[in-house]
């Protein structure tokens, strides 16, 4: 905190991991030697750069670009790029730190990184977004590579942005390699990558429910966000017989008293991915827009926060539990504050942290890299099956390290220890580097 006083999100993520790891570290003192912890909280490298671009009126803008290369202990740096006005170094360090443990949990050989810019794609024309992406990649291309660092999408970076950045990378480097994931299907993408984070989150929650002999069937599910993760989480919940009673965006919550219909899901996909519109435009029968509200006041059985960090606070957690919610799986990264997580764990409800529940996205990104390396394309069924089994193995790892004497599974502890052990063992083997 003394070194980086202005990085509260990073401190929060580090505190969450280190405090839940502490009893394990004391019981296994080899991990307290060799400066493992001190090295884990310091990025291997941070790249910070100017991104100048020209808007449609000829006006010059300057944004700031970043890539945090956190850990390459178990593989090349891997993690998304975020374009959002709230992006700063502290936010990206928190995301990169989380990514290290998450990637270790996937069972695939990927290190951790994260990057992005404070650029806001909202309200920009396609041409403006393209010019920005080209300028961003012009600098970033010097620091990434298929065996070095492989970025992907995140908030504000979807198929359109990945396409523009990939085109620019190829032009600059004169090579067609797997340097980005989340690519389009015509140029090296993987089937099921767009669906992977949302589906994976629901597969993980399904495993938690199975522990109690339960399922999604007939459950009321609140979802926040309405972007990539929320969209496919909603689709999978409906497929498993659950009722999606909300989605949200930064304008408010769209409440579906009778559960979202399949037709409304298609409407949502068109609104968000093609028209790039706002949720309030979807108001109608069985769709009530609640301006300025988050979904946590709605009575539900299961909550899937899929928007952004710190979107669910202590009071929200208490309200959810009081209204009957007994399972929370984080599709977003760190959507619950530390105090909210404490409420879920104290009340002994099923709670899956993002690094376990949303690891499906990066897992399928890893599978995209494998397919590119083999010059092959697996079918949707094959990728989905691999995703499903990766989520089940993450669940098993959490259970192994997180099961307490009374049978309660502390998924926060389980995920942190399982991810840590793999990375720390690799660091011990590689010496002080
Ligand atoms: P998108 O940009 O597709 O969607 C983000 C959604 O969250 C939008 O509905 C957006 O609303 C809402 N949102 C973003 N910031 C805020 C805010 N400050 N307040 C309220 N609502 C907000 O992003 P993704 O769906 O890809 O990512 C969502 C979360 O999932 C992030 O935490 C991301 O790090 C995490 N994640 C994503 C993965 C992926 O594969 N995409 C993988 C693993 C984790 P609006 O449009 O109004 O801003």
UniProtKB/TrEMBL annotation:
Residues annotated to bind NAD(+): 197, 228
Location of the active site: 114 (proton donor)
GO MF term list: glutamate dehydrogenase (NADP+) activity; nucleotide binding
Site (Important for catalysis): 154
Keywords: NAD, Nucleotide-binding, Oxidoreductase
GO biological process, one term: glutamate biosynthetic process
Any Pfam family the entry gives: ELFV_dehydrog_N
GO cellular component: cytosol
Domain Glutamate/phenylalanine/leucine/valine/L-tryptophan dehydrogenase C-terminal per the UniProt entry, residue ranges: 190-431
SUPFAM superfamilies membership: Aminoacid dehydrogenase-like, N-terminal domain, NAD(P)-binding Rossmann-fold domains
Record: residues binding substrate: 78, 99, 102, 153, 365
Reaction(s) this enzyme catalyzes, per UniProt: L-glutamate + NADP(+) + H2O = 2-oxoglutarate + NH4(+) + NADPH + H(+)
Family membership: Belongs to the Glu/Leu/Phe/Val dehydrogenases family.
Function: Catalyzes the reversible oxidative deamination of glutamate to alpha-ketoglutarate and ammonia.
Known partners and oligomeric status: Homohexamer.
PANTHER family reported for this sequence: NADP-SPECIFIC GLUTAMATE DEHYDROGENASE 1-RELATED (PTHR43571)
Name of the molecule in the record: Glutamate dehydrogenase
Record organism: Halopseudomonas yangmingensis
């Amino acid at each position: 905190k003394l070194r980086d006083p202005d990085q509260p999100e990073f401190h929060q993520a580090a505190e969450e991991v280190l405090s839940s790891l502490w009893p394990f570290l004391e019981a296994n003192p080899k991990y307290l030697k060799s400066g493992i912890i001190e090295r884990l909280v310091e990025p291997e490298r941070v790249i910070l750069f100017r991104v100048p671009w020209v808007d449609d009126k000829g006006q010059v803008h300057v944004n700031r670009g970043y890539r945090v290369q956190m850990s390459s202990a178990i593989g090349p740096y891997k993690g998304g790029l975020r374009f959002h006005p709230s992006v700063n170094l502290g936010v990206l360090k928190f995301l990169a730190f989380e990514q290290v443990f998450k990637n270790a949990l996937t069972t695939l050989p990927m290190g951790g990184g994260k990057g992005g810019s404070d650029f806001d794609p909202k309200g920009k024309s396609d041409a403006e977004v393209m010019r920005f992406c080209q300028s961003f990649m012009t600098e970033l291309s010097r620091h990434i590579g298929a065996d070095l660092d492989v970025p992907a999408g995140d908030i504000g970076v979807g198929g359109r942005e990945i396409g523009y950045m990939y085109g620019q990378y190829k032009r600059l480097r004169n090579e067609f390699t797997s340097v980005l994931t989340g690519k389009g299907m015509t140029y090296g993408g993987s089937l099921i990558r767009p669906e992977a984070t949302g589906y994976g989150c629901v597969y993980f929650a399904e495993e938690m429910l199975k522990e109690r002999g339960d399922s999604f069937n007939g459950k009321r599910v609140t979802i926040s966000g309405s972007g990539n993760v929320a969209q496919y989480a909603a689709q999978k919940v409906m497929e498993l017989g659950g009722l999606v009673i909300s989605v949200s965006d930064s304008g408010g919550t769209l409440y579906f008293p009778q559960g979202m219909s399949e037709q409304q899901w298609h409407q949502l996909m068109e609104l968000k991915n093609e028209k790039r519109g706002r949720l309030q435009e979807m108001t109608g029968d069985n769709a009530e827009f609640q301006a300025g509200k988050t979904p946590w006041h709605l009575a539900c059985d299961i909550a899937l926060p899929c928007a952004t960090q710190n979107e669910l606070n202590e009071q929200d957690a208490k309200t959810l539990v009081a209204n009957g919610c007994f399972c929370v799986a984080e599709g977003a990264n760190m959507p619950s504050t530390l105090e909210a997580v404490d409420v879920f764990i104290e009340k002994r409800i099923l709670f899956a942290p993002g690094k376990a529940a949303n690891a499906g996205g990066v897992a399928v990104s890893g599978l995209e890299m494998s397919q590119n390396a083999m010059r092959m394309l697996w079918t949707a069924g094959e990728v989905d099956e691999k995703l499903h089994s990766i989520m089940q193995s993450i669940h098993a790892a959490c259970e192994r390290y997180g099961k307490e004497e009374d049978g309660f599974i502390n998924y926060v502890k389980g995920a942190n220890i399982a991810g840590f052990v793999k990375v720390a063992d690799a660091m011990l083997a590689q010496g002080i580097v």
